[in-house]
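Hey L., structure's done. Input below.
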Amino acid sequence: MVSVTCLHAQKHTKLGQPQAVVAVVDRERYAREALAAAFRILGEGQLALTKFLLVTDAPVDPRAFRPTLEAVLERTDLSRDLHVVPETAMDTLDYAGPEVNRGSKGVLIGVGPPRRKLPGGLEGLTLPSGFGPAHAFCRGCAVVSGPSWEQEPGAAGRLAGSGALAEWPLVVLVDDAGAATVSETAFLWTAFTRFDPARDLVAASARLEGNAIVREAPVVLDARMKPWYPAVVECDPETARTVERRWNEYFPEGGVAMGDSSTAHLDRAP
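Output:
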């Protein structure tokens, strides 16, 4: 039995709401069955448009993203469990690839007993020049502010190779670490919709063994805004006031919660 949960980013852009990541819990009965399950999922209907897939056999609820990601990071062997597939079909709503409907996919597997104790705090961390501040999204995943893509396109490689985050298996490079970690949804949107696995994923070191790429931690996802990405769209104050004033006209029978446009934006605390 395979349990699959699709986690969608909820922030609007000019292009809509792309599917960001699928978390999977799989019971591995034989060696590398988790990889076979990943291939099946990536070939199944709408799930074929998934950009990044997490696979674990740990007893976690995949709807809870933080513990799911921690379970994967505790168990993954980055030298064999991180797979990047370039030049694949991509959702029309995903803008991170080289052109519409083209991009790449990533699979990260973490099965079996834990391999490492994940770091949880960043106290005393010294980052290379141009980086910071840094926040921990969860144990094992650090989110770091860096120079803009226009200022330094190769900043992710410099951060990965610096050794400053050697104990952190996953690092996400962003424009604003505070905004990216204000909520789980904000992290999902920032981390998984603003990077293309084939172009924006770098490791501290990578070497070829036969045809396999062997990577060593940390792996850095470059999730900074790129010049070709659409701008973030927010509700302007006048429109918000109009909707608030006329909400009961839109839904005269009631039963529909209006919410608050000033706090719905992912860069703000809920």
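The longest helix spans residues 237-250. The mean pLDDT is 86.

-- N.
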